[in-house]
Amino acid sequence: MSAKLERTVCVLLPNKKQLDIRVGPKSTGQDVFSRVAELLGIKELYFFGLTVLKDNEHIFLDLEEKLTKYFPKDWRQDSGKASLRRPFPLLLFLKVQYYVENGRLFCERRARHLYYSDLRERVLRSECRQQEEVYFQLAGYALQADLGDHSLQREGLEVTPYFHPKDYFPPWIIAKRGVDYLLCHGPKVHQELCGMSPRDSILSFIRDSCQLEDVPVT
C-alpha cells in the first residue's frame, strides 16, 4: 500500500488511552478492529465494537463495510484544501456493544478491565434517580478496585480527601448531595469492602451496574 494513500485513524479506548492506526482507502472496520486487538494483545474483544460519533451519538460500525462509508469523502486526503476543511482527526471509539452481568466470562484480565472502564463511564452518565444506593455501592466497588483497602480515620480527626467525587458519582448525585457529603460517606462504603481483591471488586461492579436500567443498553 502506498504511504501516500494511508491515513491515521485514532481509536479512543474505554480507559481513555488511544491507539493510532494506519489505514488505506479500502480498509474496513474489521481491519481496524483486528489491529486494535493485536496492539492490545487481547483476543477477547467479542463484546466490543467500534463506533463513530455522528450528531453527538455513537453509531456502531458494520465491521464488514469500508471506512469510507463512515468518514467524509475527502478522508483519504492528507494535504491540500481537504485537510484545511477537516478540523478534527478521524476518530473511532472502542465501545462495549453487548452487555453481560457475569464478568467471569472474560478470561483475559485486560479485556475485563476494558469492559469495566466502559461501564464506569456509563454509570457516570446514568440517570436512575430512584436507585441512589446502587450508585454508592458501585462507587465503593470502584474505589476498592482502583485504590485497594482504605482505613477510616479516627473520629474527630479531619478527613483527608483521597478521591474526586466526579470520578465515581454522576453529576446529579454530586448536585444533590454535595461534594463534602460524598467525601464523607464514600469512604465508609469503601471501607466496608476491605479485603476484597481488585478482581472481585471489578466483578461486583460489573454485576451490580446492570441493576441500572440505562447502563446495559446500546
TrEMBL record:
SMART domains, sorted: B41 (SM00295)
Q: Which residues form the FERM domain?
A: 7-218
Q: Which GO biological process entries does UniProt record here?
A: positive regulation of hippo signaling
The record's annotation in Pfam families points to: FERM_M, FERM_N
User: Do you know which PROSITE patterns this protein is assigned to?
Assistant: FERM_3
Extract one GO cellular component term from the record: cytoplasmic side of apical plasma membrane
Q: Which PANTHER family match?
A: FERM DOMAIN (PROTEIN4.1-EZRIN-RADIXIN-MOESIN) FAMILY, FERM DOMAIN-CONTAINING PROTEIN 1
Name of protein:
FERM domain containing 1
Q: Which organism is it from?
A: Nothobranchius kuhntae (Beira killifish)
Gene that encodes the chain? FRMD1
